[in-house]
Amino acid sequence: MAKYSEDRKREAREDILKHAAERFRRDGIAAVGVRPLMADAGLTHGGFYAHFGSRSDLIAAALEYAAGTTLDYFHAAIARVPDDEKLGKLVATYLRPVHRDHMELGCTVSALAPEIARESDATRERFSASNEGLIGLIAEHLPPGGGAGERLERARILFASMLGVLQLMRIETDPATAASLAGAGRTAAMQLAHAPWREGGA
Asked: Quick check: 83 and 143 in contact, CB under 8 A?
């Protein structure tokens, strides 16, 4: 019975995190209260503190959960692609219409960066750390060359470029304009990826 209770509690927490990760990305953190989140998971509001110490704890945990599922998605997207095509596939997957149209299922940074900037230092630190996985995946598949620090720096800049393009795509109401932005963004990202490395870069 104790094992069942522990498993049920773990499943309930996972369900809360799944719903919170989607709702936060779709509606924004400030617009989502604890009560509707618990209702989404089929749980009562009173059970919240059995899983999280505070709303801030829930926010940080949900964002970590979202970053993890997003990273898993990109790993799967490039898994069957030849090594020299993985980065191009990753960029194209990030800048595709379905990612623009389904904010609730995509990159947490693109959906929530302005709100996270207003959260506590502890939440921002956990959020930043949780997104290092995607940046690391980009760095792993950059063209050969460069030191570890330079590769990570370039990966961050490349990610920032993709992030900005995706946000502009979401602003556009004309699908053709958004598609044009996506194409230009893919080209720019790959040009950045293939730019010469600094000689002796660390």
From this structure: no
Q: Domain range holding 34? A: 2-193
Q: Kindly report whether the global pTM for this prediction surpasses the value 0.70.
A: yes
The CATH number assigned to the domain holding 8 equals: 1.10.357.10
> What is the spatial distance between Cα 108 and Cα 61, in angstroms, rounded to a whole number?
12
Residue 145 backbone dihedrals phi, psi, to 5 degrees? 120, 170
Instruction: DSSP letter for 76, please.
Output: H
Cβ atoms of 161 and 192 within 8 Å: the answer is yes
Q: Is residue 156 part of a domain?
A: yes
Q: Rounded to an integer, what distance in angstroms lies between the CA atom of residue 201 and that of residue 173?
A: 42
Q: CA-based diameter of the chain, in Å?
A: 63
Q: How far apart are CA 157 and CA 159, in angstroms?
A: 5
Q: What is the pLDDT of residues 44-96, one digit of tens each?
A: 777 787 888 888 888 889 999 999 999 999 999 999 999 999 999 999 999 99
How far is residue 72's CA from residue 76's CA, in Å, rounded to a whole number? Answer: 6
In this structure, what token pair is assigned to residue 143?
């063209």
